[in-house]
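Long-time lurker. I teach an intro course on protein structure, and each term I like to show students one example going from raw sequence to a predicted 3D structure in token notation. This year I'd like something fresh instead of my usual example. Would anyone be willing to generate the tokens for the chain below so I can use it in lecture? Attribution to the forum is fine with me.
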Amino acid sequence: MNDNKLRGLIAATYTPLDLNGELDTDPIGPTTEWLIAQGISGLYTCGSTGEGMSLRSAERCSVAEAYVQSAAGRVPVIVQVGHNSVAEARQLAAHAQQIGADAVSATCPSYFKVNDVDTLVDCMAEVAAGAPKLPFYYYHIPALTGSTLDMVEFLRLGGKRIPNLRGLKYTDTKLHEFQQCLELDQGRFDVVWGCDEMMLGALATGATAAIGSTFNIAAPLYLEIIDAFRLGDFVEARRLQSLSVAMIRAIGKYPFHPAMKSVLGFSGFDLGGCRLPQGRLSQSETETLRNELSLLGYFEWAQPNSHLSAIS
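-- Reply from a regular --
Happy to contribute to a lecture. Here you go:
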């Protein structure tokens, strides 16, 4: 196993679909090149952003393979394998290891809710065992899974029963719990932040890496937040974080991920719409969103510049 922790901005990648809503992996290569050029230091595939739960398992395998091949070892690729079938998730984890992914991650089953930490550990142990040579990150996103269990207790118990448990993708707003997870067992676990509009708070709490959707479209902004924080310029860091919040609020007026795909289209990346129940934005909605983002100055401050850095 690679003992290095994740660092910097990890883009939760999108899955390209054609006009008929079928998988089209051709744009993954150019998109990966662009993300790396923007300062991204990792790729997280088939998660919520990548519509993993709306894809067939064979499609998820194809997407993971395309991103691993496109990254070509330059940045780590984490494959999200969560599924309502734990057995299917384990097979997806095994595939991720087979194709050379750098880590696997998984949400818990969500149709039948996981109501206690012991059961959550049992489920994740089964999934992680599919890829025993890879670091495993539990994907904690209670807003979507309905599982609001104590993550400190999960790490304590999981650390004893899941040999390759590396840490968490923590997509919640409880900074106090996030901090406890970071500090548990003298920093044993790699806990990666997952709420873009709260990055500054996470940095103050000790975050060294973050996985996010909007890193696809505004990585330079987040890298500037990190720089301002590291320099101790908290007034500037708050100003920049406010731009992130305003951008996310503008996008959030629409179905979020279809809107994000529209914004990627503004940069020349046509990744299609999303599968039902998400759909896609209309042309008029897309133009309105473009105008709203323009009023925020998005097309100026979201561009790469010479002052890129990474969390360290």
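Some talking points for your students: The beta strands are 8-12, 42-45, 77-80, 103-106, 136-140, 165-170, 190-193, 209-212. Residues 306-312 have pLDDT under 50 and may be disordered.
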